[in-house]
Amino acid sequence: MMRARIALIVCCLCGVGWLAGSTLQANPLKDRKRVITGQTVDLEPLFRWWTNRHGDRPLYAWAHVTGAVVATNAWGWTVEARLDRPPARAHGSAPEQASAGGQVKLALKHPPVSELEDFSQLTAQSKALSDQAQALSNAVKAAASRAREIGANTPRSRLRAAEVRQWQRAENQAKARLAALRPLLADCHAKLAAFPNSAKYILDCLALEMGQEVNGLPIYDYGVPVRGH
User: What is the number of structural domains in the chain?
Assistant: First the structure.
């Protein structure tokens, strides 16, 4: 019985290493080269301007889109978005109508699906790490409590002393695993903090205003990233 209980605690110590990993961070300055309607576009001038905001903004038709994905379909995503466009474009002939909160619903072609997948994996890792940390913390407390209980309430004997040592070893193992896990959890939280919302995926990208509509929604195109850039 005692061995089974120790084994149950020790099993909480396994399965930490696979949770470590890297992910992309949400940032509008990504995928510098993209293909739009068969043409390759280099966003490097806009990326440079975005960094220092010096001079006139290039590539006026590319808007900064942030918002929640409310639907997915064959042509892309429907996004409840806030648009940040240059003043010269903001008063143009864009077909979308802003809500009272300054948001518009739009269709985004070729959305950054891989980023959403990365975010989903990261949130899953965060939950798994948090659950693991809680299980290890509980294991430390249970092992320490059991060692104290045996040491205080039973006659001294070689057998009892060995049992106490087993529980103490289980406690120390759990503490060591918990200490090793904490940096992974901190790293996971830091990566999630780089996104606009660490609890829910929020799109943060540059997309081209196409001047077209689908199902009454204005179309923006993220483009197809040119890999290796």
Answer: 2
How far is residue 176's CA from residue 113's CA, in Å, rounded to a whole number? 38
Which pLDDT band holds residue 97 (cuts at 50, 70, 90)?
low
Q: Based on the domain organization, do 102 and 211 belong to the same domain?
A: yes
Which pLDDT belongs to residue 6?
A: 43
Segment 75-90, tens digit of pLDDT: 899 999 999 877 655 4
Regarding whether 106 and 207 lie in a shared domain, the answer is yes
Same domain as 85, residue 147: no
pTM, full prediction = 0.70
Specify the DSSP class assigned to residue 60. Answer: T
| CA–CA distance, 55 with 46 (Å, rounded to integer) | 11
Do 208 and 108 lie in a common domain? yes
In sequence order, what are the beta bridge partners of 214? Answer: 217
Q: Any bridge partners for residue 108, and if so which?
A: 77, 220
Residues 108 and 209 occupy one common structural domain: yes
In a domain, 39, yes or no: yes
| Sheet containing 39-42, strands listed edge to edge, beginning at the edge strand earlier in sequence | 39-42, 33-36, 224-225
- Structural domain that includes position 45: 33-113+201-225
Mean pLDDT in the chain?
83
pLDDT for 105-158, tens place per residue? Answer: 999 999 999 999 999 999 999 999 999 999 999 999 998 988 888 877 666 677
Residue 167 maps to a domain? yes
H helix runs in 22-157, sequence order: 44-52, 87-90, 113-153
